[in-house]
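Provenance and format

Records in this collection were gathered into a single text stream. Each protein contributes a sequence line and a token line. The two records reproduced below are adjacent in the stream.
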Amino acid sequence: MAPAAPVKEPLWSGTVRVERGRAGDHSDIYQMLLAVFHGPSREEFHAAQDDPAYEPANRLLVKRTGRCVAHVQLVPRTILFGSLRLPADQLAWLVTLPEFRSQGIAGHLLSAANRAMTADGTQFGMLRTRIPHFFRRWGWAVCGRHSRSRAKARQILAHYSAAPELRRQPLNIRLWRHVELPALMRIYAQNTAAATGPLQRTEAYWRWLIGRKAFDHIIVALAGPDKLELNEATAPIVGYAVVRQNRVVELLADPAYPTAGPQLLARACADAIEHDQHDLILESPPHDPLHKFLTDAGGQFHHHEADDQEVFMMRLSDPAGLMRRMGPLLTERWQAAGMSRRCELGLAVGEQKHLLTVGRRGATWATGRLGRNFIACNRAEFTRLVLGHCDPAEAAGQNRLTASTQVALQWAGILFPRVGLWRPTWDDLTA
């Protein structure tokens, strides 16, 4: 018989006792979420418990007389960050019952969540919210941009029909079959191998993501005849699109088949028109050429921090640990820029002083000193800088960051460039 898992002690924040959740709390938590948010659906709530990374202890609770009055959930994830794989926690379902608000309980819960993330070894937390001002007080920074295009379905089809080069490599477009999951996994891995922001998806996660059914259908593009091929090595699937109503929430294709994307979009447009939906929305990385395809069809591209007042936010749980994990990536960037000399870049983050040294033999991180060449900013700007949300020169021009020398600013631009920080929408959809 396996030994019982150790029980984690409560997390205290001031005078507020924050408890780790247990399986027996699920019913009480669901009723609280339903009373405040009128959701999630019962199916979605149970689907969350089937997540391969789910543990009841990742729910943090405040109770009064045995009743749950506040709750937040930490969802363990792994983020693809260039060549790195970084552990992170997604903050979800922060709620306090109305009769217990204005007592600072949510703040105590966030403080406990921040400590729990650090204790669990995650590099940073992430969330989506329409009240960023609340989370800023607890060390969270707006980080990440929405990326989507919108155009009229009929205009997209007309633009597609007027471009015969898109049909010189005709593909067979049809609905996806469950036995073809390995093909979706392969294409996702091809497109996200060096990306910044998407989640790492294991096979178990893929099966959970599809099983929770937060989409209408998946269409695939095949290069070759439409036949059932159980051997993934010879499967002809070269692209896929996940569709929910008139939104294409994920579209990825084998880079060797550049026409797969437009052909999948054309099929999605035809389906939208059949269901009397006049617009088509594509949600994909900002560098995706399909955005230009839609804007050329008279559409609009949206790439901003806020979308319908919703923003992405992140918080570094362990800045020093993250910088050490990023050592190989920083060395890659330094060498790719053709820099032969060693750099010592100081980072003044609030009242804290750090020194980052990068050279041929790697990168090191020390605290307590700056050196001659340094940059200074607050913790929120440091979060955006490290995670590639902002360009150092742009931040300096807007007085969000100061540099002791032009050399320091140049080095910061090499080590911390703005990258296409982007997360697929599909992972965050609710059923």
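Adjacent record:
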Amino acid sequence: MKRFSIVAMTLLLFASVAFAVQRGGWRGGYRSSDDRNGVPVWESNDKFPHDVFTFARVRYDSYGRRGGGWATDYPDADLNFSLRLQQLTSIKVNPYPVILELTDPRLFDYPFLYMIEPGGITLSAAEAEALRKYCNNGGFMMVDDFWGDYEWRDFEMAMEQVFPNRKWEEVPLEHEIFQMVYPLKEKPQVPSIHAWARGGSTAEYGHGGDTETPHYRAIFDDDRRIMVFICHNTDLGDGWEREGENHEYFEEFSVKKSYPLGINIVTYAMTH
């Protein structure tokens, strides 16, 4: 697997930073993915739609402890990440992200799922069964943007329902998921742009317990393939969504942390 430096990524992203800053971000509410907010559409392989990567977001019914839910950062995070993945890697990417419920029969057409803000999540028996089957059959789910002990326990209980005989493990920095394309020297912590703007902190407080330490945990299958990669006490999605709102935030969190790790995660998911 060819590796690239963060410096190379910085140069490539800065080549399009004028686009990002001019485009700006979107601030709240629910918006259709048809409103691309300036993100361009690129050519994809219509003859072989299953040969391209599609960013697939999980929609669930419950809401997070902070009042958020599955639609947090939507659709800008999905659109921006898809664009950058297309620009910065050799992966062919569908310019149109999708939203899927766990019980959707199309779930198995998408090898990568993205779940956000699962603090407070509850899953039905049907959802738990579908996710278990999806992961056991080679699927991969990335979980992002939840903080503290309370939100962790909610998510942990949901995963115990999905995988009653498996335990999550802390993933060491030496694991290939942190080193595949962009070798990382630390486990990054990305704050929401609002938390960062209030005083420059990379942690979000008020969620119970330690939120200053980012945790990257995983649930593995019997062959030690990661099925569920869990990004706790960090918010990679805001680094994608908010890339055009503040140049300093873009440099520090989008370029150096959110995009490198996100690209590593997708590369791992698509090659294992």
